[in-house]
Amino acid sequence: MSQAAPLDIPRWEWRIFAPSFDDVKRLHSRSPKARTVQAEISILCLKSMHDVLIQGGTIRLRWRKQVGPGGLELWDSILHSPFPCPAGMVLRLFEALGMPAPQLPRTHYSERQFLTEILPPNPDLHAVPIRKQSEVFFLEGATCEWAELSTDRCKVESLCIEHEDPRLALQVVRHLGLQSSPNTSHPQGLKTSLYSPLQP
Protein backbone atom coordinates (compact mmCIF):
# COMPACT_ATOMS: atom_id res chain seq x y z
CA MET A 1 0.00 0.00 0.00
CA SER A 2 2.91 2.31 0.65
CA GLN A 3 6.05 2.59 -1.41
CA ALA A 4 9.35 4.32 -0.77
CA ALA A 5 8.99 6.38 -3.93
CA PRO A 6 5.89 8.51 -4.56
CA LEU A 7 3.20 6.83 -6.62
CA ASP A 8 2.55 10.02 -8.54
CA ILE A 9 4.49 13.21 -9.02
CA PRO A 10 3.45 15.56 -6.17
CA ARG A 11 1.29 18.37 -7.51
CA TRP A 12 0.55 21.86 -6.30
CA GLU A 13 -3.17 22.58 -6.02
CA TRP A 14 -5.48 25.54 -5.67
CA ARG A 15 -9.12 24.61 -5.11
CA ILE A 16 -12.19 26.71 -4.42
CA PHE A 17 -15.65 25.50 -3.51
CA ALA A 18 -18.88 27.02 -4.88
CA PRO A 19 -16.98 28.90 -7.63
CA SER A 20 -18.80 31.88 -9.09
CA PHE A 21 -20.62 31.51 -12.38
CA ASP A 22 -18.04 33.71 -14.09
CA ASP A 23 -15.19 31.43 -12.97
CA VAL A 24 -16.89 28.36 -14.42
CA LYS A 25 -17.99 30.20 -17.55
CA ARG A 26 -14.40 31.15 -18.35
CA LEU A 27 -13.44 27.47 -18.27
CA HIS A 28 -16.52 26.29 -20.13
CA SER A 29 -15.57 28.59 -22.99
CA ARG A 30 -12.71 26.16 -23.68
CA SER A 31 -13.21 22.64 -25.02
CA PRO A 32 -12.91 20.18 -22.12
CA LYS A 33 -10.28 17.46 -22.29
CA ALA A 34 -12.58 14.94 -20.64
CA ARG A 35 -15.99 14.67 -19.06
CA THR A 36 -16.55 11.94 -16.46
CA VAL A 37 -19.23 10.77 -14.05
CA GLN A 38 -18.07 8.40 -11.33
CA ALA A 39 -18.95 7.06 -7.91
CA GLU A 40 -16.45 7.32 -5.07
CA ILE A 41 -16.36 7.27 -1.28
CA SER A 42 -14.50 9.98 0.62
CA ILE A 43 -13.25 8.94 4.06
CA LEU A 44 -13.34 12.15 6.07
CA CYS A 45 -11.19 12.28 9.19
CA LEU A 46 -12.29 15.12 11.46
CA LYS A 47 -8.81 15.27 13.05
CA SER A 48 -6.70 15.22 9.89
CA MET A 49 -6.29 17.43 6.82
CA HIS A 50 -5.25 14.53 4.57
CA ASP A 51 -7.40 13.06 1.79
CA VAL A 52 -8.61 9.42 1.77
CA LEU A 53 -10.63 8.19 -1.19
CA ILE A 54 -12.11 4.84 -2.23
CA GLN A 55 -12.61 4.57 -5.97
CA GLY A 56 -12.66 1.72 -8.47
CA GLY A 57 -11.92 -0.96 -5.87
CA THR A 58 -8.87 0.81 -4.41
CA ILE A 59 -8.19 3.01 -1.40
CA ARG A 60 -5.74 5.91 -1.60
CA LEU A 61 -4.31 8.42 0.84
CA ARG A 62 -3.13 11.79 -0.44
CA TRP A 63 -0.87 13.62 1.97
CA ARG A 64 -0.68 17.39 2.21
CA LYS A 65 3.09 17.79 2.31
CA GLN A 66 3.49 21.53 2.24
CA VAL A 67 1.80 24.91 1.98
CA GLY A 68 3.78 26.99 -0.48
CA PRO A 69 3.80 30.28 -2.37
CA GLY A 70 0.53 32.18 -2.42
CA GLY A 71 -1.19 29.52 -0.30
CA LEU A 72 -0.79 26.69 -2.82
CA GLU A 73 -0.85 23.19 -1.30
CA LEU A 74 1.48 20.35 -2.34
CA TRP A 75 -0.29 16.96 -2.39
CA ASP A 76 1.34 13.55 -2.73
CA SER A 77 -0.22 10.06 -2.99
CA ILE A 78 1.68 8.07 -0.37
CA LEU A 79 -0.60 5.08 0.30
CA HIS A 80 -2.49 3.07 -2.29
CA SER A 81 -3.98 -0.42 -2.19
CA PRO A 82 -6.56 -2.50 -4.03
CA PHE A 83 -9.16 -4.34 -2.00
CA PRO A 84 -8.93 -6.74 -0.25
CA CYS A 85 -6.50 -4.59 1.71
CA PRO A 86 -3.92 -6.21 4.05
CA ALA A 87 -4.46 -5.52 7.75
CA GLY A 88 -0.94 -4.12 8.04
CA MET A 89 -1.72 -1.50 5.45
CA VAL A 90 -4.90 -0.51 7.31
CA LEU A 91 -2.72 0.11 10.36
CA ARG A 92 -0.40 2.31 8.30
CA LEU A 93 -3.37 4.30 7.05
CA PHE A 94 -4.61 4.94 10.59
CA GLU A 95 -1.08 5.86 11.68
CA ALA A 96 -0.78 8.36 8.82
CA LEU A 97 -4.07 9.96 9.87
CA GLY A 98 -2.92 10.16 13.49
CA MET A 99 -5.75 7.88 14.64
CA PRO A 100 -5.64 5.07 17.25
CA ALA A 101 -4.93 1.64 15.78
CA PRO A 102 -8.13 -0.37 15.25
CA GLN A 103 -8.65 -3.99 16.26
CA LEU A 104 -7.99 -6.10 13.15
CA PRO A 105 -8.86 -9.79 13.57
CA ARG A 106 -8.74 -10.40 9.81
CA THR A 107 -5.60 -10.61 7.67
CA HIS A 108 -7.29 -8.79 4.76
CA TYR A 109 -10.33 -6.55 4.44
CA SER A 110 -12.73 -6.18 1.55
CA GLU A 111 -14.12 -2.73 0.79
CA ARG A 112 -17.38 -3.66 2.52
CA GLN A 113 -15.56 -4.98 5.60
CA PHE A 114 -13.43 -1.84 5.76
CA LEU A 115 -16.55 0.34 5.68
CA THR A 116 -18.71 -1.71 8.04
CA GLU A 117 -16.19 -3.15 10.53
CA ILE A 118 -13.25 -0.76 10.76
CA LEU A 119 -14.77 2.72 10.43
CA PRO A 120 -17.94 2.62 12.62
CA PRO A 121 -16.14 2.28 16.01
CA ASN A 122 -14.29 5.56 15.36
CA PRO A 123 -16.56 8.65 15.57
CA ASP A 124 -13.95 10.85 13.87
CA LEU A 125 -14.04 8.85 10.62
CA HIS A 126 -16.95 9.22 8.21
CA ALA A 127 -17.52 7.44 4.90
CA VAL A 128 -19.29 9.76 2.46
CA PRO A 129 -20.56 8.27 -0.83
CA ILE A 130 -20.20 10.82 -3.63
CA ARG A 131 -21.40 11.08 -7.19
CA LYS A 132 -18.78 13.14 -8.99
CA GLN A 133 -19.39 14.80 -12.34
CA SER A 134 -16.28 16.54 -13.65
CA GLU A 135 -14.84 18.33 -16.65
CA VAL A 136 -11.10 18.71 -17.16
CA PHE A 137 -9.42 21.53 -19.07
CA PHE A 138 -5.87 22.63 -19.81
CA LEU A 139 -5.04 26.29 -19.30
CA GLU A 140 -1.51 27.63 -19.85
CA GLY A 141 -0.16 24.13 -19.15
CA ALA A 142 -2.02 23.59 -15.88
CA THR A 143 -4.80 21.06 -15.37
CA CYS A 144 -8.11 22.61 -14.35
CA GLU A 145 -11.02 20.53 -13.11
CA TRP A 146 -14.56 21.69 -12.50
CA ALA A 147 -16.50 19.16 -10.41
CA GLU A 148 -19.99 18.78 -9.04
CA LEU A 149 -19.99 16.60 -5.91
CA SER A 150 -23.34 15.17 -4.83
CA THR A 151 -23.90 13.48 -1.46
CA ASP A 152 -27.11 12.48 0.30
CA ARG A 153 -26.88 15.72 2.32
CA CYS A 154 -25.61 18.35 -0.08
CA LYS A 155 -24.38 19.22 -3.55
CA VAL A 156 -21.27 21.37 -3.95
CA GLU A 157 -19.17 22.59 -6.86
CA SER A 158 -15.42 22.96 -6.88
CA LEU A 159 -12.78 24.29 -9.22
CA CYS A 160 -9.22 22.97 -8.95
CA ILE A 161 -6.02 24.15 -10.66
CA GLU A 162 -2.95 21.92 -10.37
CA HIS A 163 0.56 21.49 -11.72
CA GLU A 164 3.95 20.16 -10.61
CA ASP A 165 5.40 23.69 -10.87
CA PRO A 166 3.96 26.03 -8.22
CA ARG A 167 4.83 29.12 -10.26
CA LEU A 168 2.78 27.91 -13.22
CA ALA A 169 -0.16 26.90 -11.03
CA LEU A 170 -0.15 30.28 -9.29
CA GLN A 171 0.08 32.05 -12.65
CA VAL A 172 -3.16 30.37 -13.77
CA VAL A 173 -4.83 31.18 -10.43
CA ARG A 174 -4.01 34.84 -11.00
CA HIS A 175 -5.02 34.67 -14.67
CA LEU A 176 -8.49 33.53 -13.58
CA GLY A 177 -8.64 36.18 -10.86
CA LEU A 178 -8.98 33.60 -8.08
CA GLN A 179 -6.10 34.71 -5.85
CA SER A 180 -8.49 36.42 -3.42
CA SER A 181 -10.55 33.23 -2.98
CA PRO A 182 -9.43 30.93 -0.14
CA ASN A 183 -7.63 27.76 -1.20
CA THR A 184 -9.73 24.94 0.27
CA SER A 185 -8.67 21.30 -0.04
CA HIS A 186 -11.03 18.54 -1.18
CA PRO A 187 -11.52 17.00 2.30
CA GLN A 188 -11.78 20.39 3.99
CA GLY A 189 -14.41 21.60 1.53
CA LEU A 190 -16.51 18.50 2.13
CA LYS A 191 -16.13 18.74 5.90
CA THR A 192 -17.18 22.38 5.82
CA SER A 193 -20.24 21.57 3.70
CA LEU A 194 -21.29 18.53 5.76
CA TYR A 195 -20.12 19.24 9.28
CA SER A 196 -20.01 22.99 9.82
CA PRO A 197 -18.56 24.66 11.79
CA LEU A 198 -15.18 24.20 10.14
CA GLN A 199 -13.19 21.13 11.16
CA PRO A 200 -9.36 20.82 11.08
Give me the strand/helix succession: EHEEEEEHEHEEEHH
N-to-C CA distance? 25 Å
Strand order in space, largest sheet: 1-5-4-3-2-8-9-10
CATH class: Mainly Beta
| Total number of domains | 1
Which parts are unreliable, with pLDDT below 50 for 5 consecutive residues or more?
A: 1-6
**Average pLDDT for all residues:** 88
Radius of gyration: 17 Å
Count of DSSP strands: 10
* Inertia-based shape: globular
CATH architecture: Beta Barrel
The CATH topology corresponds to: Hypothetical Protein Pfu-838710-001
Structural class: alpha+beta
Task: Describe how the helices and strands are arranged.
Layout: E1 11-17, H1 21-28, E2 34-45, E3 51-55, E4 58-67, E5 73-82, E6 85-86, H2 87-97, E7 108-109, H3 111-118, E8 125-139, E9 142-150, E10 155-163, H4 166-175, H5 186-195
Antiparallel strand pairs: 1-5, 1-10, 2-3, 2-8, 3-4, 4-5, 6-7, 8-9, 9-10
Structure, described:
By secondary structure, the chain is an alpha+beta fold. It has one domain (11-195): Hypothetical Protein Pfu-838710-001. 24% of the residues lie in helices and 40% in strands. The protein has 5 helices and 10 strands, in the order E-H-E-E-E-E-E-H-E-H-E-E-E-H-H. It has helices at residues 21-28, 87-97, 111-118, 166-175, 186-195, and strands spanning 11-17, 34-45, 51-55, 58-67, 73-82, 85-86, 108-109, 125-139, 142-150, 155-163. The strands form 2 sheets. The protein has an 8-stranded antiparallel β-barrel with strand order 1-5-4-3-2-8-9-10, surrounded by 4 helices. Strand 2 and strand 3 (51-55) form a beta hairpin. The radius of gyration is 17 Å and the shape is globular. It starts with 10 loop residues before the first strand and ends in a 5-residue tail after the last helix. The model is unreliable at 1-6 (pLDDT under 50). Residues 179-200 are annotated as: Disordered.
